[in-house]
């Protein structure tokens, strides 16, 4: 039996709550000193910050396009997502978006983050009642 199956069986026998710890860590709210602070250029802060991936997604909707381009070019988004939130998968996706001054830059960044949040939420929680009956399951089968 594979270790994955052993872990699943062990979790099911516990009749408790299974939480995807990666999703929990990535979706958490960080402290002020770990927050992402938006700038338009060096020494020119926008006054906006994000303390979670959800906050970050909301800021992407409204922050100036110059700020998005500035941070993307410097790899600031990638670094924050990977180092502060611990999501190397999303960091790589963001890193593949070419910096530009077109509005589709906002759409590409927003879409990548929105899809990742959905993916993390879908796989983050399974509620088990007994060995054979699953009451509520959000585990993705893909």
Structure report:
The chain is α+β, with helices and mostly antiparallel strands and 142 residues long. It folds into 2 domains: 1-20 and 123-142, no CATH class; 21-120, no CATH class. 53% of the residues lie in helices and 17% in strands. The protein has helices spanning 3-14, 21-27, 53-62, 65-74, 76-84, 88-95, 104-122, and strands at residues 17-19, 36-41, 44-50, 125-128, 134-137. It is globular and about 35 Å long. The chain starts with a helix and ends in a 5-residue tail after the last strand.
The percent range for strand residues is: 15-25%
Count of DSSP-assigned helices: 7
* Shape designation: globular
Main sheet characteristics:
3 strands, antiparallel
- Output the strand order for the largest sheet: 1-4-5
- The run of helices and strands is HEHEEHHHHHEE
Intertermini distance? 21 Å
Helix content: 40-55%
What descriptors fit this protein?
142 residues; alpha+beta; 2 domains; two-stranded antiparallel sheet; 53% helix; globular
